[in-house]
Amino acid sequence: MLRLLSVESGHRVLEIGTASGYVAALLSRRLGDSSVYSVEIDEGLAHHAAAVLRAAGYRPNLARSDGEWGWPDQAPFERILAACALRTVPHALVQQLHPDGILVAPMARGFWSGAVVQLTADGTGQAAGRFQGGASYMPMRSHRAPAPMPVDTTTCRTTTAGVDPRELLTLGFALYAGTRLPRVRMVHADQDDGAQVWVQDEDGCAATAVTGEDAYEYGVRNLWQEVERVHEEYVALGSPEARDFGLTVTARGQQVWLHHPERIIEPAPLREPAA
């Protein structure tokens, strides 16, 4: 992610999530202490990082605060790096970028198992850019996913699995499916001859499938069939890779797009309950 940040001498950089202080040390070595700003919400981590950095001879600007809000008193910055996963990019961070400034952040949604986005500010309060691959980070505390409703296992029923679960595990599909089905999360387990996936909506509807076997659905919706329909859409689009997708952040929120910012991907309409 530091490569994507493309720092240059004279840049002022804000890091969201000091953690151990390692990244702050690297940035201080490259840019000098006075050009590096780092915030950490956890009191214990913040104190530990400050001590470790001092012992190593670095004294960047540190603060204990919620990275959701950046560091407005010290803005603007040429670069902002989130060292924690975001569900959405806070508009406050975009507002604290210089025009043409770059923000790099790992995103984490239900289907998004760690997608790094590189955004460039346009000077009007907006930023846009493409996804650049995957990385897994702890989520920002205020961005942790809400717990879904319990699954009613008494509603279990079988359906033929028309898609091998392994085909759902690419980052490109995760970006597309996570945008079309924004309330659905997916986890998976690799197996010797395939994979098992579990998908669950916030409303408690769920489904699971294993390579070569039928799928099982739970709740009032046919969630596995919804996932398969979204996969059919994805294949019809040419099975785009992660770098074919991008993100635009404005004061109104964020939108995922495919190939071009005007090709916005909208959430799929909710399906009727299962008969």
Automatic annotation (TrEMBL):
It is found in: Cytoplasm. InterPro entries: PCMT, SAM-dependent_MTases_sf. The keyword Chaperone does not apply. One of its GO terms (molecular function) is protein-L-isoaspartate (D-aspartate) O-methyltransferase activity. Its EC number is 2.1.1.77. The keyword S-adenosyl-L-methionine applies. It comes from the Bacteria. Gene3D superfamilies: Vaccinia Virus protein VP39 (3.40.50.150). Keywords: Cytoplasm, Methyltransferase, S-adenosyl-L-methionine, Transferase. GO terms for cellular component: cytoplasm. GO terms for biological process: methylation. Belongs to the methyltransferase superfamily. L-isoaspartyl/D-aspartyl protein methyltransferase family. This is Protein-L-isoaspartate O-methyltransferase. It comes from Streptomyces lavendofoliae.
